[in-house]
Amino acid sequence: MNSTAGAIAAIRKKSGDALCIMGHHYQNDTVIRHCDITGDSLELARRVPHISATRIVFCGVYFMGESATLLAGEGRTVHMPEPDADCLMSAMIPIRLARAVLEQLVRGGRRIVPLAYVNTSLAVKALTGEYGGAVCTSANAETMLDWALKRGEGVIFMPDKNLGHNVANRLGIPQDERHVLRIDGRGLIEPESQPLGRKILLWPGACSIHARFRPEFVEQARVEYPGCRVVAHPECRQEVIALCDAAGSTSFLIKEAARVAEDSPGSTLVIGTEENLVHRLAARHRDRCDIFPLSRAICPEMAKVTEEKLLAVLEDITGGRGEPLAVAGELFEPARLSLTRMLEVCGK
Ligand code: SF4
């Protein structure tokens, strides 16, 4: 153990039950090894309301810390080792533009339900809550899209068009019932020329890490590793997912690796998602099967969180200098509503 790791371990021991460190699966191993709770966005969101520790340190990107602040019980504060780590996809939907587009869509009286992927800012989640919508994660997007479709005449899925397409494919919603919105800095471009009456309206955003996987990578993997199984995260393009053997959320990919290791020893699994997770799964199951990443894919924002920054925030907290994340008061209730709607629909 290096001196940084030793110092973190000492603070954790001294703080006991008053401190809880949470980490997203895309964090690197030097951070993950210090976490009390690890998970994907849904798993972490589900755990937050039940945390009794008064100080929660969240290792992930900014929107995750914001969500934790919304869901944490009274008297709990959330701290981040690197508040500047921001999901690149969540930055693709500025709140002013989201509001302008939503206003344009409902202007004619059409009942449009917003469904916001959890990878959005607090302000976009609040807008979603205000318009009767909810948040979803990649693990529950099918359930939530089905829920939203039953509540309105159309759904605007924000901001990941790839996830939206993949979920619509799973629900059997045809391509001609979907439309990727054409938007500029002010709102919809020539709304009268766009098929806005379609059931699924997709915000034109994407995760640049997952969007870099291309269909030929899957074909190449099958040549390189004959007989391999290929699975990927649904933030990948639908053309990629169509060539995979299966697709699902981060928690699905983790279970899939364990299942392959158990049921098919000696086989090869290729995974299309952020690389830190793939390497961790490869190390975990190396005695049973081979696991490879579909391609290089490190999220630079997740990588901003380091063991040194984790130690620094812990020292600030124990030294009484730790600044908790603050959530703008007027956004608190509508944003929390959009998150709690998801937890209610999907079960806490
Ligand atoms: S991997 Fe993509 S979706 Fe996840 S935090 Fe990074 S940019 Fe955002």
Description:
The chain is of the alpha/beta class. It folds into 3 domains: 3-84 and 302-326, NadA-like (Rossmann fold); 90-207, Rossmann fold, CATH 3.40.50.10800; 210-293, NadA-like (Rossmann fold), CATH 3.40.50.10800. It has 14 helices and 13 strands. It has helices at residues 3-15, 29-32, 41-47, 62-71, 95-106, 122-130, 141-151, 161-170, 215-224, 238-243, 250-263, 275-284, 307-318, 329-346, and strands at 19-24, 37-39, 55-59, 77-79, 112-117, 134-136, 154-158, 178-180, 200-202, 229-232, 246-247, 268-272, 290-293. Strands 6-5-7-9-8 form a 5-stranded parallel sheet, with helices on both faces. It is globular. The mean pLDDT is 95. Residues 61, 87-89, 119, 207, 209, 274, 299, 301-302 line the site of iron/sulfur cluster.
Spell out the blueprint of helices and strands.
Elements: H1 3-15, E1 19-24, H2 29-32, E2 37-39, H3 41-47, E3 55-59, H4 62-71, E4 77-79, H5 95-106, E5 112-117, H6 122-130, E6 134-136, H7 141-151, E7 154-158, H8 161-170, E8 178-180, E9 200-202, H9 215-224, E10 229-232, H10 238-243, E11 246-247, H11 250-263, E12 268-272, H12 275-284, E13 290-293, H13 307-318, H14 329-346
Parallel strand pairs: 1-2, 1-3, 3-4, 5-6, 5-7, 7-9, 8-9, 10-11, 10-12, 12-13
Helix pairs in contact: 1-13, 6-14
Iron/sulfur cluster is lined by residues 61, 87-89, 119, 207, 209, 274, 299, 301-302.
